[in-house]
Design goal:
347 residues, alpha/beta, Rossmann fold, seven-stranded parallel sheet, six-stranded parallel sheet, 13 helices
Length: 347
């Protein structure tokens, strides 16, 4: 049985491809983060989703250069390379499948040193420092958006779209949207800034909307516990659960969240009205550029985090309700294209 190593910062789409390859007889090993944030005690959604899919998980303690000043975090940079080198020597995979970000850098580079080829997938409309570096060592570069192709060597690039959970594709055809139902999410880790604003605005929000609030499962602020203490009619709460999140997407009339690659792609595919609050500190203003895709197509109101208040959130929701955009015509076969690319490259 041939072994593939999966790694990178966007586990949701990567896992869809990995599970299908596993069913096709490949042995899948996962290099990832067991804990999403520094000092967080809870297991990451990545660790939970991968291990419950019966895939072996190795906790890669890689570090990043971008805006990293803590000495203990800087130590993780060489340590990630040491871990990757040792594990790759021991596991002897025939290939590495990267889904980008700093987490994948040590694995792809040490793989190249050891003669192990790699394929990488770019989820966003920009190319961050990590993905530009990974691209130098990868055999092929799959991209979600055609505009991303210009950042990479033409002879390496293939446009695939984003691998999607089948439940998202099914939700596209669902007719169960509920008027005035708002789904608020900060992603798998959650967003303390968004959560605090929701808590402060809750009485005003519930006067007009039914709220489903996904707080994230981070233990740093215990936002989930605070949200539970505020539960009342019209206010539903969960920390993170993929099935509950998809159901919330399906039922919501408006979605409030960050502007990550998966969020924007899925909202565009579903044609959901949204209020997007891009993370301001990510490299190359990645989330601002992601958000513009939906803004330009009249599917989103963009609310900068610097202007996020209870009142601006309520105003933005009123504006989002008047949006007239339609679902985007986005590829839904990226998983099949990537599997074909992987098997033709590594078989």
């Amino acid at each position: 049985m041939k072994t593939l190593v999966f790694t990178g910062g966007h586990h949701t789409s990567a896992l869809e491809v990995a599970k299908q390859l596993k069913r096709r007889g490949w042995r899948i090993i996962w290099f990832g983060h067991r804990h999403s944030m520094w000092s967080d005690k809870s297991d990451s959604a990545e660790y939970h989703d991968v291990t419950t899919s019966d895939i072996k998980f190795y906790n890669l303690q890689a570090g990043k250069f971008y805006r990293t000043f803590h000495p203990l975090k800087l130590i993780r940079i060489p340590w990630g390379f040491i871990q990757s080198f040792y594990w790759l020597l021991r596991l002897k995979p025939v290939g590495i499948v990267s889904f980008g970000g700093y987490l994948a850098v040590p694995t792809v580079i040490t793989g190249w040193i050891l003669g192990i080829p790699a394929i990488t997938h770019e989820q966003t409309v920009v190319a961050g420092w990590a993905n530009r570096l990974i691209a130098r060592f990868a055999q092929k570069i799959a991209v979600t958006w055609p505009d991303s192709a210009r950042h990479y060597p033409k002879n390496k690039v293939i446009v695939t779209g984003l691998p999607l959970r089948p439940e998202i594709i099914k939700a596209r055809n669902s007719k169960s949207e509920i008027k005035n139902l708002v789904y608020i999410t900060g992603g798998k880790q959650g967003s303390h800034v968004i959560n605090e604003t929701v808590f402060a605005a809750l009485p005003q929000l519930l006067a007009k909307y039914t709220i489903i609030h996904q707080t994230g499962s981070s233990t740093l602020y215990n936002d989930f516990a605070q949200a539970q203490s505020l539960i009342r009619p019209g206010y539903e709460v969960f920390d993170f659960d993929a099935d509950l999140a998809i159901d919330a997407y399906r039922r919501a009339a408006i979605v409030v969240g960050r502007a990550g690659a998966h969020t924007v792609y899925e909202l565009g595919l579903l044609g959901k009205k949204s209020v997007l609050i891009p993370i301001p500190w990510v490299s190359h203003h990645e989330q601002d550029k992601n958000a513009r895709i939906l803004l330009d197509r009249h599917l989103a109101v963009v609310l900068p985090q610097s202007r996020l208040t209870p009142q601006s959130l309520i105003t933005s929701l009123s504006q989002a309700a008047t949006l007239t955009g339609q679902p985007l015509d986005l590829p839904t076969t990226a998983d099949r294209q990537l599997i074909q690319l992987i098997e033709s490259t590594f078989s």
